[in-house]
Amino acid sequence: MTKVMGAAMRRIQAGNALTAFGIGFTVPFLYIYVAQVRGLGSMAATSAFVAFAVSALVALPLTGRVIDRRGPVPVVIGAAVAASAGALSLGLSTGIVPILLSALALGAGQAVMQPALATMIVWCSTPSTRTRAFALQFFMQNLGLGIGGLIGGQIVDESRPASFTLLFGIEAVMFLVLAGVILTVRMPHAPSIKDAVPRDASQAGGSAWKRLLEHRAMVKLLVLGFVIFFACYGQFESGLAAFGTEAAGISPSTLGFALAANTGAIVVAQFVVLKLVEKRRRSRVIALVGLIWTVAWIIAGFSGLGHGSAMMAAAAFITTYALFGIGEAMLSPTLAPLVADLAPEGSVGQYNSAFALVKQMALALGPLGVPLGAGVPMLYVGVFVLVSLGIAWLALRLGKQLSAVQDKPSLLKGEAVPAPTAPAVEPERVPA
Prior knowledge:
CATH superfamily of the largest domain: MFS general substrate transporter like domains
Order of helices and strands: HHHHHHHHHHHHHHHHHHH
Number of strands: 0
Helix content: over 70%
Distance between the termini: 19 Å
C-alpha cells in the first residue's frame, strides 16, 4: 500500500467512525421519539421505519453507475449532505408528513453512503490488504454506534422534546463532518468516465445490471448475502426480539443487555478473528459462520423452552446475541472484500450497490419473522436453524465458483497489485 493510499484510508476510516458515532445518538430512540415524544403513535413510528427502507430500495439501484462514472467522493458528499438535512429536519418535525419526508431523505442518504464508502476503501487498498481494511471499518462502526448510543442515552429525556432535537442535531453535524473529511481525501485512483469502462470488450455494451446478473459467482454471493442478512440482522430487532419477550419471557432490559453483548463481542473479537480469517478460504469462513449461527439459534430455542430459571433463560438469550456478534466479526472482513474482488474494473460501485440493495431488501423483510417468533416460537427457531445450515451449504457452493486468489487473498501477499480495482473479467467465471 502506497503512502497516498494509506493517508486516504485513515481519513475515510475516521470519517466513517464519526458518522457511526452520530447515528448511534438516534438509532435506539427513533421509535420512542415518533410514537411518544411527538405523540403520533406506533403506526406513525412504523411508517417512519418503512420510509427508511423504501428510500434505500429506490436510491440504491441508481447509485452504482453514478459511483463508477463520477467516482465515490462526490456521491459520499452528496449523500452526507442529504442525510444531514434529513436528520436535522427529523429533529424539528412535529407532524407525520414532515417526519416521513425527513426519514426519506435520511434513509436515502445513509443507504447511498454505504456502497460509496465501500468503493473508496476498495480504491485505497489492494486485494491483500482489503480484508483488514473492511474489518477495521466494521470495528470502528460498531464502536462509534455503541459510544454514541451510550452518550445519547444520558442526554435523552422523554419529557423534553428538545433533548431529542439535540440528538438529531448532533447526528446532522456528524454527517457534515464526514463530508468535510471526504473533501480532503486525495484518492490514489482518479475517477473518470474512461476508467469506468471495463477493459474487456465483452463487458462494454448492454445494461450494467444485465452483465451483473450474468455473473454466476456474484449472483450466488447476492443470494447468500440475502440469506445471511435476513437470518441475522433482519431478526435482531424484530422476530428474535419478539421470540425473546413472548416465548422466553425476556425483559426489555435483558434485551438491551443482549444487544450490548452483540456489540461487545464484535469489538472484542474483531481483530482476534481477523487472524483466523486472513489465512483461510473465504467460502469456508462463511460456512463456519453458518454453523456458529446454527448453535446460536439452538441456544435461543433452549431459552424459550421454559426449563430452568429465568436467569438461565436470560443467559442463553444473551449468549445467542454474542454468538451472532462473533459471526458478524468473521463476515465483515470477508463479504465486502469478496464483492470488490469479484467486480470487473469500472464496476466496483455497481457491485457494491447491488450488495447493499440485497442487504436492504433482507432487512425490510426481516419483520416477517415476528408472527412466528411470537406465535409459534419453536417453529421459528427450527426454521432459522435450517436457514443457518443453508448458509453453510450456499457458502461451500459459492467456493466452487471462485478462483484460488478470490477465495484466499493471502496468496497475493508479497505481490505488487497496481490497480485498485479487480481486473476485467468474463461474467461466467472470474480469473485471479
